[in-house]
Amino acid sequence: MTEASVVIREAAFVMTEASRMIRDAAFVTTEASAMIREAAVVMTEASVVNRGASFAMTFAAIAKQKGEIVEPEVASGAHRDSVHRNATEKKMPTHTNTNHRSLVALKLPTVVAALIAFAQTIAKAMTGNPLFPNPSPALAVLMQAIADLQTAQTAALARTRGTVIARDEKKVALVTLLQQLKGYVQTIADANVENGASIIASAGFAVRKSATRAPRVFGARPGKVSGTAALVAAPAAKRSAYEWEYSTDGGKTWVVTPATLPAKTTIVGLTPGAMVMFRYRAVTRAGEGDWSQSVSLIIK
Asked: Can you give the pTM of this predicted structure?
C-alpha cells in the first residue's frame, strides 16, 4: 500500500503540473490573440493613413497642373484664416523697371601709340568731371603711367637692347590701370541706372550695346514632324498653367488638348494641308483667364 500511495501522490503531482501548464498555455493563447487584434488595428490605421496620403498626393498633383498652391492644414484657426485670406487675395500689380543697366566697354587698342592716345582721352574726360569726384586709381597715377609708356616706347623705337621688354611691362601696367578705372566708372553708372549710358560716355569710355529681346507673343509654327504645330505664348505669372485648344472648322467647335505648365506646347495628330486655328488661356491663382485671340496655321 505504501508504494501504491507514493505512485498515487506522484500521479496527482503530474496531473497538477499538467493542469498548470494547460492554464499557462491558455493564458499565452489569450495574450497572442490580443496582440493579433492590436496588430490588426494598427494595420487598419496605417491603411487609412496611406489612403489619406494618396488622396493628398493626387490632389496636389491636380492643383499643380492647374497652377494652384496647396496650403498645408494648420492647427491654429487664426493661422488657417490667415492662409485662406492670403490664398484668396488678388495679387497686386507690381511695377517693372524698364531701365536697363548700361555697361562700360573697354576697347583697348593693340598698337602702343593708339593705346597712349586712348588713355590720354580717358584722363582728359575725367579730369574735373563732377560725376567722378574720387577716381580709383587716381588720375595722377594714370597720367604717370601714360608718361612712362611714352618714354619706354621712344626707347624701344630706337632699338636699344632690352627696351622692348621694358616697354611691354609699362604697357601692361597702363592696361591694368585702365581696367581698374573701368570698374570705378561702372560703379558710378550703376548708382544711377537711368543716366548710366551718359555717365559712361562722359568718362570717355564706350557703352556696350545690350541686345533687347522682343516680348513673346502668342504664335504658332509648323512642328518638327509633319502633322504637328508648335505653340508658344507669353508667360502669365511665375506659377501658372496653360490650356490649349484648336479648331478645324473656323472656330465653330474647339478641341481641348492637354494643359501644360510651361507657356508652350506641341499639338500632334493634325491633318497636313489643313488650316487650323489655335487659342490658349492662362490659369493662375486668381483663376482662369480669358481665351486669347486665335491664330491660324496651315499644317505642314
From this structure: 0.42
